[in-house]
Amino acid sequence: MTLDKQHIVDLNKNIEKTHRTQYDFTAIQLQNKGIDAQSIVKKLKAFQVAIPSWALGAGGTRFGRFSFGGEPATLEQKLDDIGILHALTNTAGAVSLHIPWDIPEDYDSIKEKAASHNIVFDAVNSNTFQDQANTKESYKFGSLSNQNERAREQAIQHNIDVIRIGEKLGSKSLTVWLADGSSFPGQNNFQNALLNTQNSLKEIYKSLPEDWKLFIEYKPYEPNFYSTVIQDWGTSFMLANACGERAFTLVDLGHHLPNTNIEQIVATLMLKGKLGGFHFNDSKYGDDDLTVGSVKPYALFLIFNELVYGMENNPQNPDLAWMIDASHNVKDPLEDLIQSLDAILIAYAQALIIDQKKLRQAQEAQDTVLCQEILQDAYRTDVRALVRESRLQSNAAIDPLAIYRSLNIREVLIKERGKNSIASGL
Ligand code: RM4
Ligand code: MN
Ligand code: MN
User: What would the DSSP string read from start to end of 147-213?
Assistant: First the structure.
């Protein structure tokens, strides 16, 4: 199904008046602080987040997978789902493909379909955490780090194949996330595993087109529970440096041990010009892949503060590849993604209204109380009207979730695709 933009514009009329009152109030509040609301709205309108092709279906828990109706069974249908999200929010203008879950059969028609929804192809993701059909070597004991040279070669070749697929679609970056590690002490030689990984990544890097970037993701544990080869940002940073200037670290919010200061990691990487990609989600314990902002919204705001600071002050750092990396086991994925996109823009807007000059002065005066006041004043400002205004100005939905529900989109998709369609993914 394709959403008619005019339909959204018409439905907006029902709440436009209420919205206008709220927006005017917010704009005056901000004006009193010397902030131009329109300039924030402009930045919100430009912010685009890639939707991963594996997030449109039901995610599997470790113990089961609970389907819901109308899941997209083909890549075309996944693009249609992102098209719905983009029409409603104007924030989902990109897709990130996982290979081999989503290898296009007909490149031209896939490109046409994406273009019809105004969607571009962002980073392509390789997958060496599962054995693929028709491959000789197993990744049970690792891929790029495997002691078996043939398994390493196969994994390197897979990454090169993924680059070639991405080239045909207009992608400009490859994301590598490895499940490699060990579950028991003594199982692996740490140094060999790290060296193998470094050499393998350098091989992949050699095949990277000139205008491409390589993103190296890290994660402390899972699926291995004793050690992970690329366990933290430092290891990723070291490997990115070993590869070269087009290799970067990728931060996934769920890939940290509880209470890690992620905002400080962001600041360090951006200062060094080495933060390349960013995966949004939320978590209580680990790689929980929950809706963005659902558990720790203040932490998200503090992270955005560093991202905004870096985007404004670190020209040495490239533009970031933003993506939502979430899994939807309980909610309708489209509703969940609408909530995530909203939470991202809210945190971004809150970070944009921090008075950086005043904060700097307070820091210099060593006035800790005032520093906290400045941050929390921004966090406690209701910026939702700015986010809504950014959507209204883009002919997207003032309230995307309400329109999604009022149009019964899930029911329409079930009618189109059936109750039992299954999306590829985990
Ligand atoms: C991993 C990691 C990767 C994603 C896979 C599906 O935990 O976050 O980015 O590609 O999950
Ligand atoms: Mn991720
Ligand atoms: Mn993850």
Answer: SSHHHHHHHHHHHHHHHHHHHHHT--EEEE----EESSTTSS-HHHHHHHHHHHHHHHHHTS-TT-E
